[in-house]
Design brief:
113 residues; alpha+beta; three-stranded antiparallel sheet; 3 helices; elongated
Length: 113
Amino acid sequence: MRAIHYAGEDLITGTDIADAVLGYAQALAATEAAATVEIPVIGAGGQVVASTFLLGPSSQLIAVEVPEFSGEELTAPELVAQLQELTAQLKRPVGRALPSDSVMDSKILDEIT
């Protein structure tokens, strides 16, 4: 289990979930984008509750191991897979068309070569 430190709070969640959230946050920051994600965390009474995070370029998150946690590891394989896919999409290079006035004339290319 890991505790994600977010907005002055420590929220306990599963290791894979925390890793996926941090990976997605990093990818969002690199693209100067933001998104919200809802993940399961252990509430004050020990029950599983949903927590929503706003992730973006200015998000300051850290995740630390919680070795003293005595409950079962919190898992959400579908959520982790979804976050990993969103992260991968942000990391894929996107082709961009050049403006028509920036395309070199083939005569210029012949002169250069």
